[in-house]
Write a structure and sequence with these properties.
By secondary structure, the protein is α+β, with helices and mostly antiparallel strands. It is built from four helices and six strands, in the order H-E-H-E-E-H-E-H-E-E. Strands 1-2-3-6-4-5 form a six-stranded mixed beta sheet. Helix 3 runs parallel beside helix 4.
Length: 156
């Protein structure tokens, strides 16, 4: 049911942007390793910025994950999210929804400790679930939606 509700919300968001006559803007990554992947790092639709899932890869290190376990990967993952948001004119305060995928649901408390360093009240809406087999053997993946209206003068 939760998945149906999320899909319905996303569908309504894209429909609202389409009704406004705007086309989605597909935003690539400046990181050469990430730029080769078959997805955009973010998509702007109307006033919403949809981030692709981020894992704890270290920028400029190919696809190497941060070393040091769940805390290090979570820290790098959320730093990667911050960087994507900032590249596209948004911040962590603009995030309205996060979906967290954990390779081991037992890491949830450790993830929450790191998460609280990056987000403060009022917190974004959030879902968390365990997933079998995250990309590159990651322990954590997080995707976010931010409210990030285009700045005046920006291309549509």
């Amino acid at each position: 049911m939760r998945g149906f509700a999320a899909a319905t919300v996303l569908g309504l968001c894209f429909a609202a942007a389409a009704d406004a006559g705007e086309r989605p803007e597909f935003l690539g990554s400046p990181d050469p390793a990430a730029a080769k992947l078959p997805f955009s790092e973010a998509v702007r639709s109307g006033d919403l910025l949809f981030l692709s899932g981020q894992i704890g890869t270290v920028p400029g290190a190919g696809n190497a994950l941060a070393k040091g376990g769940i805390a290090a990967e979570a820290e790098q993952t959320l730093s990667n999210i911050r960087a994507v948001l900032e590249r596209h004119g948004a911040s962590m305060r603009d995030v309205v929804k996060c979906t967290v995928f954990l390779a081991d649901i037992g890491d949830w408390p450790a993830f929450n400790e790191v998460y609280r360093k990056h987000f403060s009240a009022p917190f974004p809406a959030r879902s968390a679930l365990a997933a079998s087999g995250l990309a590159l053997g990651a322990k954590i993946e997080v995707e976010c939606i931010a409210q990030a209206p285009r700045k005046a003068g920006k291309a549509r």
